[in-house]
Amino acid sequence: MHLVALGINHKTAPVALREQAAFDPQTLPDALHAAAEVGAGEATILSTCNRTELYCGLRKPSDESLIDWFCDYHKLAPRLVRPHLYVHDGRTAVAHAFRVASGLDSLVLGEPQILGQMKSAFAAAHKAGTTGKLLNRLFQHTFSVAKQVRTDTAIGANAVSVAYAAVSLARRIFDRLADQTVLLIGAGEMIELAARHLKEQGIRRMVVANRTIGRASSLGGIYGAEAISLLEMPDYLSSADIVISCTASLLPLLGKGAVERALKARKHRPMFLVDLAVPRDIEPEVGELSDVYLYTIDDLKGVIEENMESRQAAARQAETIIESEVIEFMRWVRSLESVPTVRALRATTEALRDVELERARRALERGEPADEVLLRFAHALTNKFMHCPSAALREANADSELDLISATRALFRLDDKAS
């Protein structure tokens, strides 16, 4: 069985194509069974906003049937998909799985979410019954490698997204981040990412203020936040320990006077404000106030650049770990390939043994001396065992002779000095 990984991701395909190539979780079991039938009965599908990938076991080292199935399933023209499609087989497929799980192939280098997504993808395939010896071993090894990369390198130690950098700074300022109240101004991608990071840190109260209450409610429903309009924001500002803002407004939404009034109501308990918008949502003069920590996107970019350099160094360490683990996995794969040969060899030798054993029994029943029967049995068995290997060595052509002789000496552990 041959391992193949194929797919598209954020590097190879535009978002429009990625959307068309995504797999619906509701119909995923059917898709898994259909993909498995194309190959050797094993298939796992990883489908996220940034990538769609198939990991399959194939009877033959050919991916054309799988590519055709992928295009047919999504009703996509092959000529439109193929330029964006990557295909890995064998060793490169294993390396790709290890790199994806370790965050080395992600939009944000080292991000940890992909590992959880891969675990969910494997769990779905395992539940559907479309994994077997090959994919079970691959994904268990993949998860182990990802854990080793996280443990032995600093791949995820530092913030490399603006939203995560903002949350990381908040953790430095507040002893117990989970106890703070967060006001998020805006409801776009950056605010959603910040909300996700805050939720992961255990924040219990978040408020989302947005121009359209519907979008705020949608975001609030996902992350358990209260939704308000921008007009209501002044009433909530005094209760906010952390304010993160990112809107498309051309004018500041939060001025010095509003923050001064909030601080007075808070009895000057500190406020942490992060302005991720360009142009700014928060007046620069707010930073002049006591008990206010104000950061802009430019303040965070310097931190991110330093952290990215650190992650890139960690990524190089991770590649070394992955290379070593790929060798280990492929050693196991090669051991699988030898199983049919070992079985055939054992069956052949047992058949030869049974023929000679029956002949020896009949000789003993006729009253022939046991010593003579045993000696004749041993000679006959040895000659039959050695006939095919000896003939192959004698008939080997010039190109293969050296390899066959070397393999024979290694296989039977022959001592060169005795030759």
Describe this structure as you would to a colleague:
- This protein is an alpha/beta fold.
- The protein folds into 3 domains: 2-152, 2-Layer Sandwich (Beta Polymerase, domain 2); 176-304, Rossmann fold; 343-411.
- The protein has 15 helices and 10 strands.
- The strands form 2 sheets. It has a 6-stranded parallel β-sheet with strand order 7-6-5-8-9-10. A 4-stranded antiparallel β-sheet has the order 2-3-1-4, sandwiched between helices.
- Strand 5, helix 9 and strand 6 (205-210) form a beta-alpha-beta unit.
- The two termini are 39 Å apart.
Can you summarize this structure?
This protein is α/β, with parallel strands linked by helices and 419 residues long. It is 57% helix and 13% strand.
Our count of domains comes out at: 3
Beta-strand fraction estimate = 5-15%
The helix content, as a percent range, equals: 55-70%
By CATH, the topology of the largest domain is Beta Polymerase, domain 2
CATH architecture of the largest domain: 2-Layer Sandwich
Instruction: Give the C-level CATH assignment of the largest domain.
Output: Alpha Beta
What is Rg?
A: 33 Å
Going by CATH, the homologous superfamily of the largest domain would be Glutamyl-tRNA reductase, N-terminal domain
Biggest beta-sheet profile:
6 strands, parallel
- Which structural class do you get from the secondary structure elements? alpha/beta
**Roughly what is the average pLDDT, rounded to an integer?**
90
Shape: elongated
The number of E-state strands comes to 10
Q: Low-confidence segments, ≥5 residues, pLDDT <50? A: none
Amino- and carboxy-terminal Cα gap: 39 Å
Order of helices and strands: EHHEEHHEHHHHEHEHEHEHEEHHH
- The order of strands across the largest sheet is 7-6-5-8-9-10
Number of helices: 15
